[in-house]
Design a protein that fits this description.
- This is Copper homeostasis protein cutC homolog.
- With 229 residues, the chain is an alpha/beta fold.
- The chain has one domain: TIM Barrel (Alpha-Beta Barrel), CATH 3.20.20.
- 34% of the residues lie in helices and 16% in strands.
Length: 229
């Protein structure tokens, strides 16, 4: 590969963030409440983590379990609050009841980010038509990444989709970086790298003790070694 692959690690607190950076992470996804698959952390947590590390951090904008936007005005206020404390990168993604992208909610929340870079998260793996979703979002300001396993069931199930989408990179709707996460294991990495995929996202894989334990710098370092320095 011509450049270092991106390694993004989920962080819940300052301890996680510091360990992830020490292990060689390039970026953090900041969340709380993994029982709900990751919700927006407090502003104080975001501020503390940004002060503790000097790698990029992306803040989750999600207020409840599921992929419906819910209270969009509240989401906008939260986004503005995070911008006010200096957050510069974000994660979001909203679907309607029919499984189509909720364009209205995405427009309102992304608009509050003032052009900041953001990831559309694994809501894409629950979309009724992921190709249509990508094309509808193709020109959204700041959208530079899709976090996806290729399927709702994880990378084992979604690997053929990931490889097919990697081959389409550069087409309309496929200019954004493919960030693979969701049941991702080290043994998946060689195939994904060979396909030209250059961004990887881990959560539980960085925590040998499970979600009740902290991020392990050693576990992150093993991923960094496999991905290349």
């Amino acid at each position: 590969m011509s450049k270092r692959a991106v390694l993004e690690v989920i962080a819940l607190d300052v301890e996680d963030a510091v360990a992830a950076q020490a292990g060689g992470a390039d970026r953090l996804e900041l969340v709380t409440d993994m029982a709900a698959d990751g919700l927006t952390p407090s502003a104080s947590t975001v501020a503390a983590i940004r002060a503790a590390v000097d790698i990029d951090v992306r803040v989750m904008l999600r207020l409840a379990d599921g992929f419906a936007a819910g209270d969009v005005e509240r989401l906008v206020r939260v986004a503005q609050e995070m911008r006010g404390i200096g957050a510069e990168e974000f994660v979001l993604g909203f679907l309607g009841a029919d499984g189509d992208v909720d364009l209205g909610a995405v427009e309102r929340v992304a608009g509050a980010l003032e052009g900041c870079r953001w990831t559309f998260h694994r809501a894409i793996d629950r979309a009724a038509d992921r190709d249509a979703l990508r094309k509808q979002l193709a020109d959204f300001s700041g959208l530079d990444t899709y976090l996806t396993a290729g399927a709702a069931g994880g990378v084992d199930e979604g690997l053929p989709v990931l490889l097919a989408e990697a081959r389409r990179r550069g087409e309309p709707g496929y200019q954004q970086q493919l960030l693979v996460g969701g049941g991702l294991r080290l043994d998946h990495v060689p195939t994904l790298l060979d396909a030209g995929i250059d961004a990887f996202h881990i959560g539980g894989a960085a925590r040998p003790g499970g979600w009740d334990g902290p991020v392990s710098a050693e576990a992150v370092a093993e991923w960094r070694r496999v991905l290349g320095d």
